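#random but structural
TW: two for the price of one
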Amino acid sequence: MRKGEILIETKDLVKIYPMGRHELVALNRVNLIFRKGEFAGLVGPSGSGKTTLLNIIGSLDLPTSGSAVVMERRVEELSHKEAARLRNEHIGFIFQTFNLLPYYTAYENVEFPLLLLKVSASERRRRVMEALDWVRLADRASSRPAQLSGGECQRVAIARAIVKQPAIILADEPTANLDAENSHNILQIMAELNHELGTTFIFATHDEKVISYLKRKITLFDGRVVKDEIIS
């Protein structure tokens, strides 16, 4: 893929959740394009539609109407199996709660996506150690989550997201459970990976520390895009 190539495009994207006799409009005719190599963030107050938009881009949810095209695939037309394949091959996820498997080592947690892709054992080891090295945790490969700090657990989660070198990484409030120092360490690592690998990062956040690293800030309010700005 060339730098600047379109990876994601939403067209009049609408998401409505039934709420008893009423409806909650989470997304209201959202039109956005994301290109290879972007370091972008969805910002806005709670309930503005940030996580809903990330979930649709990540094929974890479906729009009510409109379209989301990700890696040339229409999310709303994918079967469960096709959506899982899209996620496995092209998308990495980072969540605020880490979502690590507690009884598995850092190495085994990072290895898991490669097992789904049926990567050979020798190639898995090379990629896992490379990913742990990227997040400066190669020396903690045999440690379990309970033996790691919150910042280290989030770094393992980043390694797990990048080990398959996906085109897109979706990060939902990735610094919410971290102190300022760990937040900046995590963000510096992600910015370096964006620069070195050309991976497209899209954050959902209201954390000013995250916002200070963004190259593009998309502001949502009541499910609408109210501002889309490039940050120099």
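TW: number two ↓
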Amino acid sequence: MTEILKLGGSLLAKGREIVHLLSDYAVKNALSFVIIPGGGPFVEPIKELSDGISDDTAHWMAVLAMHQYGLFLAEGELEIPLVESIDGLRNAGYICIVLPYKILKDDDCLPHTWDVTSDTIAAFIAHKLDEKTFIKVTDVDGILDENGVLINRINAKELIEKEHKGCVDAELPRFLLQNRMSCVIVNGNVPARILDVIEGRETIGTKLVSNKK
């Protein structure tokens, strides 16, 4: 069984701890984890330059910002493998971190806009691996309604119609809807919630779905 997780750059200070937790869990439970790093603080300088560079250049620079976070997460006593191809991901063992530049270059189908961030890229990689869902690990509990109340479950079509998408990029609900996928959003500051999702338990978070059920 393979679990796809997008680990947000907002969790920079806790990211390695989460990776170590998942590595131990994977070995003990004979699971496989594919971790897609976010951009986080590594992408902010690119946004500041965006008025002076093309959308194409900004897109690829932002993808490479994910590599910087990936390299940071992989470093340490565990020496987490870094993988740059879909074939490599299929044979990566218990846990690996994705460096997505070559994968996206080989299949350059995502829009080159700021509507596409590591959220949609994570969904894209999950889709390439024939997975129908992934976990988005971030620094908030999930998507909030207009009153600031956590939404436990929302359809991608409904989220597309909302002016404010909350903690996901604008393209993600469209990608999920087009490919009949789902995403579960959890707060990585409470790592136990990640394991709750993996084990199918109810937990605090938002499930973003593409069906009517």
